[in-house]
């Protein structure tokens, strides 16, 4: 078991009394490309330090290590984490929080965050914000500098073998991981890129959309595939 909280589990920020950090949590899948699932956490009782009001609320994206500790905590709040909305006293932003499958085609999921007591346009009507996440760049220089990865994946839809064409200039080894829409790792396999590689997806029992993460010597590519049954 790994606990995450103020001063615990690698979390580097602090809370006020009654913050309710963890009031809701959602699994984002691997958004920073390190092969480890990340999470988003609501803190609906947060008190804005610049105001006298209560229950503004905020949310966090937590990038995790393999042992469950926090590698990086990213605050989502007015003017922070790329958030452009106006959170006000009593909104309780972060009351509930949910991952949404990729809406804008960038292979990164989106995030829905509720503020049930939002004061506009009418007092206490509430709103839900849809946040278009853009992923988080790797801190490793090798990952930042790596050239774009070009891989053909076929057939798509698939129901048995899924094949990969890396081209003749790709490094000789690659790691392919298959995730479901909830970010759960279903399959991981090492491939030799120059030998017409493929993975067997016939053991996936549920038809639908899945995510592939392909790592070829530090160059990472995400693709959606459809598995048919």
Give a verbal description of the structure.
There is one protein chain. With 229 residues, the protein is mainly β. It has two domains: 111 residues, no CATH class; 87 residues, Immunoglobulin-like. Helix content is 2%, strand content 39%. It has one helix and 14 strands; from the N terminus they run E-E-E-E-E-E-E-H-E-E-E-E-E-E-E. The strands form four sheets. It has a four-stranded antiparallel β-sheet with strand order 1-2-3-4, with no helix packed on it. A four-stranded antiparallel β-sheet has the order 11-10-13-14, with no helix packed on it. It has a three-stranded antiparallel β-sheet with strand order 5-6-7, with no helix packed on it. A hairpin with an 8-residue loop joins strand 1 and strand 2. About 5% of the residues have low confidence.
Helix and strand layout, with pairings?
Elements: E1 21-29, E2 38-43, E3 58-64, E4 70-76, E5 96-100, E6 110-115, E7 127-131, H1 141-145, E8 152-154, E9 161-165, E10 173-179, E11 185-192, E12 198-200, E13 208-216, E14 219-227
Antiparallel strand pairs: 1-2, 2-3, 3-4, 5-6, 6-7, 8-9, 9-12, 10-11, 10-13, 13-14
Tell me about the largest β-sheet: 4 strands, antiparallel
Radius of gyration: 20 Å
How much helix, percentage-wise, in residues? under 10%
Q: For the residues shown, what is the average pLDDT?
A: 84
**How much strand?**
35-45%
Q: How many H/I helices?
A: 1
Shape by Cα distribution: elongated
């Amino acid at each position: 078991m790994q606990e995450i909280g103020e001063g615990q589990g690698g979390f580097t920020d602090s809370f006020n009394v009654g913050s309710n950090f963890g009031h809701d949590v959602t699994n984002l899948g691997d958004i920073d490309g390190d092969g480890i699932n990340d999470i988003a956490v609501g803190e609906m009782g947060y008190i804005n330090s610049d105001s006298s009001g209560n229950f503004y609320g905020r949310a966090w994206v937590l990038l995790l290590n393999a042992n469950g500790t926090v590698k990086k905590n990213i605050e989502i709040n007015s003017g922070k984490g790329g958030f452009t909305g106006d959170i006000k006293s009593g909104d309780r932003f972060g009351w509930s929080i949910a991952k949404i499958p990729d809406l804008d085609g960038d292979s990164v999921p989106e995030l829905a965050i509720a503020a049930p007591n939002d004061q506009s346009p009418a007092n206490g009507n509430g709103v839900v914000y849809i946040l278009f996440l853009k992923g988080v760049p790797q801190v490793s220089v090798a990952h930042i500098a790596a050239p774009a990865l070009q891989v053909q994946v076929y057939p798509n839809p698939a129901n048995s073998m899924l094949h990969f064409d890396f081209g003749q200039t790709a490094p000789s080894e690659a790691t392919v991981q298959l995730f479901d829409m909830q970010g759960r790792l279903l399959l991981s396999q090492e491939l030799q890129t120059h030998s017409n590689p493929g993975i067997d997806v016939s053991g996936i029992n549920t038809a639908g959309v899945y995510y592939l993460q392909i790592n070829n010597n530090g160059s990472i590519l995400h693709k959606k595939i459809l598995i048919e049954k």
